Amino acid sequence: MNQSKLACGIMSGTSLDGIDVAIATISGTGLNTKIELIVAETFPYPKDILEKVKLAIDNELRVRDVSSLNFELGRLYADCVIKLCKDNKLSPSSLSFIASHGQTVYHQGATQDGSNPNTLQLGSGSVIAGLTQTTVVSDFRVADMIAGGQGAPLVPFVDYILLSNKDKTRIIQNIGGISNITVLPKTQHEKDVYAFDTGPGNMMINYAMEYFFNKPYDAFGETAKKGNLIKALYDEILQHPFLKLQPPKSCGREEFGVSFTKELIKRYHNHTREDILHTLTVATADTMVKAIEQFVLNKHEVDELIISGGGVHNTFMMDQLKKKLHPIHVLSTDDIGLSSDFKEALAFIVLANQTMYQEPSNLPTATGAKKAVVLGNVSYYR
Question: 331: annotated binding-site residue?
């Protein structure tokens, strides 16, 4: 169990900004897990496939086209792994396993309008396994949901085993399309760890940049810096019903995606696009700040906020967090030796490693599940 092995993680998140592929060595399980990044790369989505993913998310694809997309994404993910291996003189068959999160096109964490909790991530694990000739672990969220959880967030288990510190109470935050946090009290007891989605991350900002400037994101927050606050728009975002829910809670494009953002832009079209970007960014940062104040600082004195994900590169947003959460020390996972861009790809390697040893890897205190369960489906290659 302590023998080091080579594994690969594939992550494509709600921000749709690319496919993160990381190869790492991993040994041990649970609190004895050790992982070290070897090489990683972000691959762009081909335009035609990206458009299909967006149509699927917007419920505008026929069932047969969704089924086809499941295979297309599996082939694309396999191609990314094969290319990364080839570029680094590795064979995909030398990997002990591949962990693939898949592309979420729908996630409903709780019963809603008579519909049971459900989730769908596309990118067939069996297709990836067949093309890479390697065992693949995928479809991580369902087991937690059947155990009464919301199927998200799953990374808190990894935060707990890799980033707990007996001398510091830490918040680990990932700012992808959605922002989520894991609270790690310095007690280091698993039962004391909790996590939840705070609300939007880059999602609304990225859509607005695409809408106004035909750019995928606001580099360093430079566009947002040029604008001024639109108070009515800010207030409308901060009054979103999700923000008032008690943890554990999860959200996605269903709450803060294209439909929501497009409607906001339409209502405030008479303002400058820089003002809209400024307001979306400030409001997004403040949803994070208010979640931390309301659900964390009333229980703990926090020493560090450690951030990963694409949001780390938005210096305007980071400055907002540093200013409004002072005196908490705000830093990135890069500052403590863990890649901020590939943390989630590495995290799914850890989750898949647990699966291969038939050990649980959800945190019931984070997802709301009734018990800890083994996550994922395994597609073996023989």
Answer: no
